[in-house]
Protein: Mutator family transposase
Organism: Actinomadura citrea
Amino acid sequence: MRLLESALEGEITDHVGYGKRDISGRGSGNSRSGTRAKTVLTDVGPVEVRVPRGAGGTFEPQIVRSGSAV
């Protein structure tokens, strides 16, 4: 699931416009807000991944949507 988590990091980076730990994002109003656990259903069974969150709830991952299976 490391590949999936890396892809999700790419999505949040694209959404907020700066990379993880990049100081240019400070005070921008569109910031990262940690991660949350999500269980993804796969061919080998359920797997937990860490999904990044955006402050203000404006980030909705496209790779792992709510209620989706991979």
Notes: The CA atoms of residues 17 and 25 lie 8 Å apart. The helical segments are 2-16.
